[in-house]
Amino acid sequence: MTDFSVPQRMGFGAFVIYFLKFFRLTFNASIIYMAYTLFQSDGDLTKTILKIAAIVGCTTIFALILASLAIFQMKFHVEDGNLIYRHNLISRATTTIPLSRIHTLRTRQGLLYRLFDLRGVLFDTLAAKEEEIELVLSESDWQSLLTRIERQELTQSAVSNMPPAYNPSSFIEFSNKDLVFDALCQNHLKGMVILGGFVSVIFNTLSDFSENSIELIEGYIKSHFDQFALSVTGVALIMACTYIVSLVLWLGKVLLRYYNLSLTYNSKMLTFSHGLFSRLSSRFTRDKICTVWIKLNYFEKRFGLSTIALRQALNSSAKKEDDNLKIYGRDHYDFFLSWWLGQDYGQEADIATAKSGKGVISRSLLSDVLLSSVAIAVLWHFGLYVWTILPATYLLAGIPKGILTMRHSHITLKESYLIVNNGCFAETKNYLKYDNIEVVRVTRTPLSRFTGRVSLSISTTGTTFTVRSLRQEQAMNIYELLLAKPQK
Amino acid sequence: MYEQSPDRDQINRPIDELHYEPVNPRFRSVQIVSAVIAYSLLAVLALLLLLVDTYWWCIAAEIVITVSFIINLKILRKAYKFKGYALREHDITYRGGVIFPKITTVPFSKIQQVSIKQNPVSKYFGLSAIDIVNGAQVLSSLAIQGLTKEKADAIKNVITQRLNNNHD
Question: Using CB atoms and an 8 Å cut-off, which of residues 60-99 of chain A contact chain B?
Answer without folding.
Answer: 80-82, 88, 90-98
